[in-house]
Design a protein that fits this description.
Keywords: DNA damage, DNA repair, Glycosidase, Hydrolase, Lyase, Multifunctional enzyme, Nucleus
Distance between the termini: 36 Å
Helix content: 40-55%
CATH class of the largest domain: Mainly Alpha
Function: DNA repair enzyme that incises DNA at 8-oxoG residues. Excises 7,8-dihydro-8-oxoguanine and 2,6-diamino-4-hydroxy-5-N-methylformamidopyrimidine (FAPY) from damaged DNA. Has a beta-lyase activity that nicks DNA 3' to the lesion.
Structural class: alpha+beta
GO cellular component, one term: nuclear speck
InterPro entries: DNA_glycosylase, HhH-GPD_domain, HhH_base_excis_C, OGG_N, Oxidative_DNA_repair_enzyme
Subcellular location: Nucleus matrix; Nucleus speckle; Nucleus, Nucleoplasm
Length: about 325
């Protein structure tokens, strides 16, 4: 790893942990629409906000290099944060083998998209990020989240003339003028959902209670989330999968529904994605892929609500998003 490849601000210290590409591909995971806080600061180098701190990550062979800016963390703590965020204690190669043995279509995708794993994000950040994903695409969602953090979040530092902010606290989004400010930032109808969900959580289970849903059964966590303004089944499943440890959650939208029907031959009646069809599709993939069905879906289909650009519209250096083969 060459320090000159990092942002111009001098990092306190570069460290690394062993992590082969078969277990993690930063370029695929951080650009796939799971999180919207990472920026490719130079080719193969990613800078973003994690846990209220600014990080730069880069892979070199079987090593994951990382540094944290303006933070006093020892090596054990920084490694713990990264292992938790990328869920590195989960052996991905063995899962790929099992999914490929159960599903020939997955086997076709797996070789092109190695190292795609599910992130373990902060539940508050994940929830409000995915409320913004309805009828949206990754680049626009990323810009919206950036504006949200700049307007409501605490400033952390500035690298290469680019400011970085923490994700807003729940209290910051419950102000009387929050909805109006969000509309001024271009959130449209989502502004009501963001401010409304923030108030509902603050007046109800609180941020601690939201985190405690990690230990609740999947159906219970999903039910609680679906009671929030602007949270339907697919947003709830994204939050369950990406922040609440519900690896069996399979987010479904009309695109995933079409894949299930056309590629897998799942026979479901009707011309729309009804709640019953949604449940049946999720159950089908859970039976096919097993208890980590949501992880398998992250490889084989894009996350609902994060529209994948047509290949002809992508720049030549663009890395295909997982799911492009099946889609």
């Amino acid at each position: 790893m060459k320090l000159r490849d990092a942002p111009s601000a001098c990092p306190s210290l570069w460290r690394w942990l062993p992590c082969p590409p078969a277990e993690l591909r930063l370029d695929l995971v951080l650009s796939s629409g799971q999180s919207f806080r990472w920026w490719e600061s130079s080719p193969g180098t990613w800078t973003g906000v994690l846990g209220g701190r600014v990080w730069t990550l880069r892979q070199d062979g079987d090593r994951l290099w990382y540094t944290v800016y303006a933070a006093k963390l020892n090596a054990a703590e920084t490694e713990r944060i990264l292992r938790d965020y990328f869920q590195l204690d989960v052996g991905l190669s063995a899962l790929y083998h099992a999914w490929g043995a159960a599903d020939p279509l997955f086997r076709k995708v797996a070789n092109d998209f190695p190292g795609v794993r599910v992130l373990r994000q902060d539940p508050v950040e994940c929830l409000f990020s995915f409320i913004c994903t309805s009828n949206n695409h990754i680049s626009r969602i990323t810009a919206m989240i950036e504006r949200l953090c700049q307007a409501f979040g605490r400033r952390l530092c500035c690298l290469d003339s680019r400011p970085f902010h923490a994700f807003p606290s729940l209290s910051a989004l419950t102000g009387a003028d929050a909805e109006a400010r969000l509309r001024a930032l271009g959130f449209g109808y989502r502004a009501k959902f963001v401010s409304g969900s923030a108030r509902a959580i603050a007046e109800g289970l609180g941020p601690e209670g939201l985190c405690q849903l990690r230990s609740a059964p999947y159906a219970e966590a999903r039910r609680v989330l679906c009671a929030l303004p602007g949270v339907g089944a697919k947003v709830a499943d994204c939050v369950c999968l990406l922040s609440l440890d519900k690896a069996e959650a399979v987010p479904v939208d009309t695109h995933v529904w079409q894949i299930a029907r056309q590629r897998y031959g799942v026979a479901l009646g009707g011309k729309s994605l009804t709640p019953r069809a949604y449940q049946e599709i999720g159950d089908f993939f859970r039976e096919l892929w097993g208890p980590r069905a949501g992880w398998a879906q992250a490889v084989s289909t894009p996350l609902p609500g994060t529209l994948v650009p047509h290949p002809k519209l992508c720049p030549p250096h663009h890395v295909p998003i997982p799911g492009a083969v099946l889609c």
